[in-house]
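To: structure desk
From: M.T.
Subject: fold request, one chain
Message: Could you run this one when you get a chance? Sequence is below, nothing fancy, just the single chain.
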Amino acid sequence: MKSIVRIFSLFSLFVLALSSCSKQESSFAQTTEVQPTKDIRLTDTTFPELPDRVCVVDRHEQERDVPPGVKKLDILFVMDTSSSMWNDWEQVSRQIGSLVNALPQETDFRFAVVLGHVGSWNGKLFYTKGVPPVLEGSKRSLAQISKDLKKLFHEGMLLKDKSTGEASFHSLYAATTKRLKENRNLGFFRDDAALSVFFMSDEHEIGFPFPKRQAPGIPPRCDAKSEDAIKKKYYDANGITMEKTFQALKTIQGDRPLLTNAFANLTIADLFKDNPRDSKCLYDSLGYGYFDIVGKTNGVLYSIQSNKALGLQMVGAAASKAFAIKNTFELSKPAEDVDALTVAAAVDSALVPFEYDPITNTAYLPNAGGPGSIVEIRHCEPVRVPDWSIENFRNEAQQYLVDLSWVTPQYATAGKILWGTSQNQLINEQMSNGTKTNHQ
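Reply: Done. Structure tokens follow.
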């Protein structure tokens, strides 16, 4: 027990001495310029303080202009096929030009449709007589694409499903996992294309947990029992969640641009656009679940009750921006040299949400700024115990000299050793000889 106490005392004081010397180098110990060939502006980001840690800040600058050349973009419509959605989907097909015209002129875009079903069409790219499952902009005029989408949406609305056609996340998860190979064979989910996913619904996503309490003034669901039963049977039993669906999207996209967009009921006013104010219950609801998945990519969240042309233009503009904006950043140090709890991200000096993946050693920023923005990612090394040893310690009374040796190849350090007859009587002290990397 005495040995353990002495070692703990030595270790504690040694680590403090090591950190103190590192801290003197700079406020973050050192700075890594990830793109030294670029003229990177200095920023005034204030990251949360981590005293006595060895940290670096990786700095990146977003492209100021969309790089020249052909841009590939896959646009996936995930359909809520419940009966109340007829008019909404018809409007989208009629106004699709607003989306296309907002893209860079040389964009190689493709459209596909997935039905929000759990049955035979679950995860499959939908097609019908005379309309293929993938609509290629390079082979079809805008007028023909509008006509084809109208037919796909119409035929999709006619099909019945056990989930009432509202299982958007369930079907999207299948499309990007078990159906991925066949969907890619059809020419969609290209491995060199950006991906924009478009949801539209006048209800919440049926597998997403409905809040126990809503805002005052919102009536309860009329179909709560049946919706909860669908969630339990098709989502909960198979472990399908919004988060799992989004991770599947991220997996297939890698570091290529990914956007999630939704037209949904955003406010109480939206809910009562088509419902009486004195309703005892509603079949419509706010877009719970869609709010969350759109927030993952900072995509377009737009009122389903508003002008569809304007909303589609915003979706196209967001895709155009995504060609120039990078959202995933690899850290400059290997994962074993990163303490995940110390990672922080900032865009143009403002702290922003992020997700750090230790497997790929990357930070994903849903909102990574705009053209020319400066992205900074701070990360620190784990606290390590140096390889040290005690010499000439005889564990005897009246000893007044003891040696401590250690090596810290990356950083110059200093150390101190205390010893005595008990943990509370560490009255003898020996300082190291200066600050250096090798104390032997």
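Reply (cont.): The CA atoms of residues 139 and 158 lie 27 Å apart. Let me know if you need anything else for the meeting.
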